[in-house]
Amino acid sequence: MKQQAYEEFKTRLFEAIWRDLDPLEEEIENNEALPYDKLFPMLREMGAFGLRLPEEYGGLGLTVSQYIDIIAEFSKIQGGIRAVVHVHNSMACAFSKIANEEQRRAVLPGCVAGEKSVAFALTEPDHGTGLDLGTTATRDGVDFIINGRKHLITNSDFASHFIVFAKTKPGKSEDSVSAILVERDTPGFTIEPLPETMGCKGGEHGILTFENVRVPVANLLGEEGRGVYQLEEALEISRLYIAATSLGTAERAFDLSVQFAKERKTFGKPIAERQAIQRYIAEMGIDIYALRNMIKDAAKKWDSGKRIPAEASMCKQFGLEAVGRVTDRALLVFGGIGYTRKYPIERLYRDARLNWLEEGPPTIQYMVAAREFFKGYKWEE
Known about the structure:
By secondary structure, the chain is α+β, with helices and mostly antiparallel strands. It has helices at about 5-20, 25-30, 35-45, 65-75, 80-100, 100-110, 225-265, 275-305, 310-335, 345-350, 360-375, and strands at about 120, 135-140, 145-155, 160-165, 175-185, 190, 205-215, 220, 265, 270. The longest helix has about 35 residues, at about 225-265. The two termini are about 25 Å apart.
């Protein structure tokens, strides 16, 4: 999207986020469920379902640099809403990269309209990811027969399509995993909810069970045996989006803390005049400034056509550490009242902890970054 049109769109979208979506927080937190009957029409009106999708399918075609500002703003309000928007846009975009034209035409216009949605079925309860997957897809004539289980699959309560990563070849060779598109109502495919999460209330992370699920070989996404490479690329850019999520949550906690410190008085003067509080605020600002510029640099590289495996993992890792420190200090600024639901600090604190786990925990981020450096990865401007 051209920059002037983008700025106008962003202004309208940000206004709608705070006018229409932010007031849903209390209802969602109380019920631990997203009111889709209210939420989806609002998101459709905002254009929030096609943010990263190409214009030829009805999307807005935002660059990564443009999109990160938007997902950061969504991350300042109730976390379940952010999770829906993030996963829908990230996975629809990932699908558009690996699908053929016929598959794109069948799915993407519906994603833009908010009538269809693609979920990422990778994580398993009984196995690791990548080459350790236990889900299998066995060729039987013109079909694959899929067996296995997935869990922690976000948006599983409403997704119409699932990118299922499965072993199409025995063993753990690099070409043993493939990506296959499975529709929600396919016989033998069942979906169950998991217990409610600590934060980001209302977002569903379900269990998928495949019992002799038969899908056409035509549902293969990209080339057979390319699944590991496909998931790595999808997770790479999505890690940058999680870093932007950390940034948005940290910025909201920071703004609330500055405002509260100016208003809260003890011994006749605002706590903003206390040296301890000033240090907390300065430390929060340092983390936010560093994270913001890391993300901008990585997004610029991606938009120029470069892969960013090391940068994405470092941004994701620093982001989760930064938002952890910022929300810790925000709670200290607010004191005991911050531990109650009187202010959003309590929710932001819980919502931020999902960032530890989305798109891989810290151990994965360290491994990926170190692996790239040992392979001779070079910094580029």
